[in-house]
TrEMBL record, chains A, B:
The keyword Membrane applies. It comes from Marinomonas ushuaiensis DSM 15871. The chain crosses the membrane at residues 46-67, 74-94, 100-121, 133-158, 178-196, 216-238, 265-288, 345-363, 369-391, 398-430. Residues 453-566 form the STAS domain. Keywords: Membrane, Transmembrane, Transmembrane helix. This is Sulfate:proton symporter.
């Protein structure tokens, strides 16, 4: 059992048959062909030679297939983590140098270690810090930055920077250097890519392909465009006219040059590695979960940390950069018919074969078409609809999205993400420090108690029941003190204060201290303090405390009992 | 009305009579005499000439009396903010130099500005971040550091450092330089201070003083010791034997030397200024509130930010260092019979007179006795009882106290405080990311629903009611998804899932997104999702959302109604 948990592959390997293998091989071949352009493109996005994208698709994919819990997730280079890699590595080295490759490899290694540490310490909950508005703003802004960053490849000019203003300034300065052949190639590629994306399946059906063929190859249109573009460059020698191409692929895989690393660099890379690992993890788990839900399978987030952690360490060992489970990769994988992680292992093997024997085929592959692929897929991630939707739900959260979006654009991805997280924490703290406190009364004819301001309810002049709609802890302890003091001081008829604790799920020492102060002050004022509907976990906490030992009133199981008993007592007086 | 709120002094000035003034003058004279040694001592603690403590007791006290809301709080130099001042200023300058004074003044100014900004932006809730265990650990460790830091004055040796290890190392290295006269003076002072603290009131009674005199002068024992020690130094010329004394007081008050300030220093001082201002504010408000509660008066925390902010700016204008409302100052003030803030104004005037005409009296005042006063009052703040108390209540919070305590000792006050705050946030997030989710059933014969694991309750095989004991927001949205999915997948008989929302006080976009996902998955599984007992504020949020529009089940006002209707429906089938 424990071994199965550690190595989830044992689960599906048990029942794996020869027929499964045949099916998986077909799926893998199609998947591999279709995923190659994407992998090359995202390596370029990370500021590394495009071919590194293939290195990053072998060992990580195998390791995730063995240690991950999703049956469908495809792990490899992903746009968001790739561009984060570029933005983290850039301050340390110039793209294209050995130093750059070394720092990127180190970053993959550190991200892997972080994920494993999070798993060991059960700190996966930290990823919850990325709230929906922050992720949404972050993704939209990053995608926009990526598209703007790709313009240099699309136009064949030089440009630098990784935030909005330097990027645009730099593009503007070099605008006169546009390489016309590159521009024409880019323009044609984008138009054709958009066309095949929309119409290729229809075209296949139209020319009479079987439904199965259409399903398998319906999304292979982009591959066709890539092949055509590469052939065009080769035939017309466009590289001689200034169209930049991948060129010859080195025989050795890059590896860490330990001479270029010191503790200082490692120390400075840690925040970046941490952010990449949690952003990668959150994205990957959400993709895995949505596919698992469709097929009624389970995802174990903690084991996902292990799978993705090992995948990143594997990527570092392959001389590549941080990887994770990607949405578009996984959609491709599912479309190709992948039903279990064996496809990840087979396609890794196929990519290895390609790397060993077929790299000359990539010689004339133009960078511009990779940039076109990136740009098109990124434009879909810039979501204005999400902002409108949020705006209707909560202005505050829409504001959070906008702030994250703007800070990412202007100050960069790391600063933007951290700003978003800190701001969402502050908003939450603000909310919880101003707890909703309702005076409640009985809904006539029931045992049910609701807010006097929203319902017609019965109350008793000398009994005040207050429902505290929040956990009691340090962030609101002092505010609770102030509110109760002012409620009681406003009404001198009150003899009994009942705190209805239906919504109190936890209490900490700071809040207990405040309640003890409140009890003392109420005692002085001749008001008895009662508690009702205290939850089990809270009662466990309170039972030995001074509060309960000195409580002037009683603890009632239900609010109904409290009111019946107190009203009876008042009637007797 | 608005002017009264801005200048709370208008409230009490309206009814202020001549008799009040006479009483206040008597109180103020006694208070002033007694508070002087403390003020001198805390200036020394801040690394400034002792006399600066008097500068810090004039303008700040007047400004707080006019703008603050407490009737009893005494504002001036306070041990904790003084030692924080020293620890913040030390990295920028050597104690005793003009640079040091300038940075301390700047710090007071920045703290004042921070407090005013917090008030303007209504950010006072940020001070809630200081939870009880963090404050307790911080105060104990700081007090211990202060006492160890005073040993150099008590022993008459040199020593440096502001954290435990450098302090002790430095003391150990200079231990052979002990100045015997200083040591004897210190020892005698400490013993006599402890004696008069315990027995002076009794002694006054014994010699036949009236109850009123005892009440007024019962706590003036330390002043007597200070006078005696000063006279002893003067008479026996102990200063010639190496006992360090205050000496001549300069004629000019220190002021900011703008040439020594640049933006870089201001920028680097900001975190320290922020911490000093919130620590000072939290301490001051809690003292003010406890005195106000006794007298049934009100404290307005937001106006307190204004009062203390102006007091600090006033302190900067007087060439002094950060001030706040102090516990021992306020106790003295109350003991002297202060009933309204006029005492603050009168005593400020008296201190001004002393500064103008009586500074020669302080010439022979030995630093050792000030150190003795500080040490004795600080030893009372090291609280082991608090730790034991917390340990019984919650191991986690006791751990928090210990971590804060240790980090303050070893790494310094700022790092310790920040560590404590971050750790308490993490603990809270951890807790709230692992929400308590209870399956509930009806307590027989009532309309009341409780946890099936703690109570004997009635449930229905095809209806699952789940009470979520936590707010629904980004920190637990994903965990909720996982938990509900596994609950439903474990039991295939379930046709209706009722989410009982009694404890849900807020919902954000992340949680809404998760609920929508849950709804989709339940739809696929043929399970209807119902909500019950949704609170008003949460319902307001939900009513326009996709969740409610696509909800497969109903929203019930009460859990009781939900079960009655669903059971009836199931019975029909």
């Amino acid at each position: 059992m424990r071994l199965n948990k550690l190595l989830p592959a044992l689960d599906w390997l048990k029942t794996y048959s020869k027929m499964d293998f045949q099916q998986d091989t077909v799926s893998s071949i199609v998947f591999t062909i279709m995923v190659i352009p994407q992998s090359l493109a995202y390596a370029m996005l990370a500021g590394l030679p495009a071919i590194t994208g293939l290195y990053a698709s072998i060992l990580p994919s195998v390791l995730y297939s063995l240690f991950g819990t999703s049956r469908t997730l495809a792990v490899g280079p992903v746009a968001l983590t790739s561009v984060m890699t570029a933005s983290v590595v850039m301050p340390f080295a110039v793209s294209g140098t050995e130093q750059y490759a070394t720092v990127a490899i180190l970053l993959a290694f550190l991200s892997g270690v972080f994920l494993l540490v999070l798993s060991l310490l059960r700190l996966g909950f930290l990823t919850n810090l990325l709230s929906h508005p922050v992720i949404s703003g972050f993704i939209s802004a990053s995608a926009l930055l990526i598209v703007i960053g790709q313009l240099k490849y699309l136009l064949g000019i030089q440009s630098e920077g990784d935030t909005l203003i330097p990027l645009i300034t730099s593009l503007y300065e070099h605008l006169s250097d546009i390489n016309l052949p590159t521009f024409i190639l880019s323009f044609t590629s984008i138009v054709s890519l958009l066309l095949v994306r929309r119409h290729f399946s229809g075209f296949l059906k139209y020319v009479g392909c079987s439904a199965k063929t259409v399903q398998l190859f319906g999304k292979s249109g982009p591959v066709l465009i890539v092949v055509l573009a590469t052939v065009a460059v080769a035939v017309f020698s466009l590289d001689k006219l200034g169209v930049s191409i991948i060129g010859a692929v080195p025989n050795t895989i890059p590896s860490i040059n330990t001479e270029l690393i010191d503790l200082d660099i490692i120390w400075k890379l840690l925040p970046g590695a941490f952010l990449i690992s949690i952003v990668g993890f959150v994205g990957s788990v959400s993709v895995a979960q949505s596919f698992a839900a469709k097929r009624r399978q389970d995802i174990d987030p903690n084991q996902e940390l292990v799978g993705l952690g090992l995948a990143n360490i594997g990527s570092a060992l392959s001389g590549a950069f941080p990887v994770t489970g990607g949405f578009s990769r996984t959609v491709l994988n599912a479309d190709c018919g992948a039903k279990n992680p064996m496809t990840g292992i087979i396609s890794a093997f196929l990519i290895l074969l390609i790397l060993l024997f077929l790299t000359p085929l990539f010689f004339y592959l133009p960078n511009a078409i990779l940039a076109a692929i990136i740009s098109i897929s990124m434009m879909q991630l810039v979501s204005v609809g999400d902002l409108c939707h949020l705006w209707r739900f909560s202005k505050k959260e829409a504001f959070l999205l906008l702030v994250t979006f703007s800070v990412v654009l202007v100050e960069g991805m790391q600063t933007g993400l951290i700003t978003g997280v800190v701001l969402s924490l502050l908003f939450f703290l603000w909310h919880t420090s101003h707890p909703h406190i309702a005076i409640v009364g009985r809904v006539p004819g029931t045992e049910h108690f609701r807010n006097v301001q929203r319902f017609t309810v019965e109350t008793h002049p000398s009994i005040l029941t207050v429902r505290i709609d929040e956990n009691l802890f340090f962030a609101n302890a002092r505010s609770l003190e102030e509110r109760l003091q002012s409620l009681v001081s406003q009404n001198s008829a009150i003899k009994h204060l009942v705190l209805m604790c239906t919504a109190v799920n936890m209490i900490d020492a700071s809040a207990l201290q405040s309640l003890e102060k409140i009890l003392d002050r109420l005692n002085d004022a001749g008001v008895k303090l009662h508690l009702s509907e205290v939850k089990g976990p809270v009662m466990d906490r309170l039972k030995d405390s001074d509060l309960i030992q000195h409580l002037s009133g009683k603890i009632f199981l239900t609010q109904h009992q409290a009111i019946e008993e107190l009203e009876e007592k008042q009637a007797k007086i």
